[in-house]
Design a protein that fits this description.
Length: 136
């Protein structure tokens, strides 16, 4: 698989559930083992006061990590989330979110990663997550 912003964006359409696609995630950039997505602010993903809900952040984080793993492996391979641990640092209100997922270690059967979610306008970190995925 030739990795490009377009091919990763295509995976979002081909590989993920319709409700993930409805979030409107956009691939901003990638490198080997790293992907940055943008999650547009929307009323459907927000709570009172325009705060992005935690469920949307975790879904975006999980999705970004899958794409980061694809850039590390160079192939689209079945995998499943084993663990996703999150710390919410502060609310994100009335702006898009930028999600950056990085592979920390890719082994034969497990992949470990870290994710940072920040405000797309102000760059302030709002959530940190660590993940483990099993390669199937």
């Amino acid at each position: 698989m030739t990795t490009s912003v377009e091919s990763l964006q295509g995976l979002l359409a081909d590989w993920f559930a319709p409700w993930i696609q409805a979030m409107g995630l956009q691939v901003e950039s990638f490198s080997d083992g790293e992907v940055t997505l943008r999650l547009p602010q929307s009323d459907q993903l927000s709570r009172v006061g325009g705060m992005l809900c935690g469920q949307a952040m975790m879904s975006a984080a999980d999705t970004a990590m899958v794409l980061a793993i694809v850039t590390q492996l160079g192939v689209k391979r079945p995998m499943t989330t084993v663990q996703l641990n999150s710390s919410f640092l502060k609310p994100l209100s009335n702006q898009d979110a930028r999600i950056t997922a990085r592979v920390i270690r890719a082994g034969k059967n497990l992949v470990f990663g870290e994710i940072d979610i920040c405000g797309a306008n102000d760059g302030k970190s709002v959530c940190r997550a660590s993940t483990t995925y099993a390669l199937l």
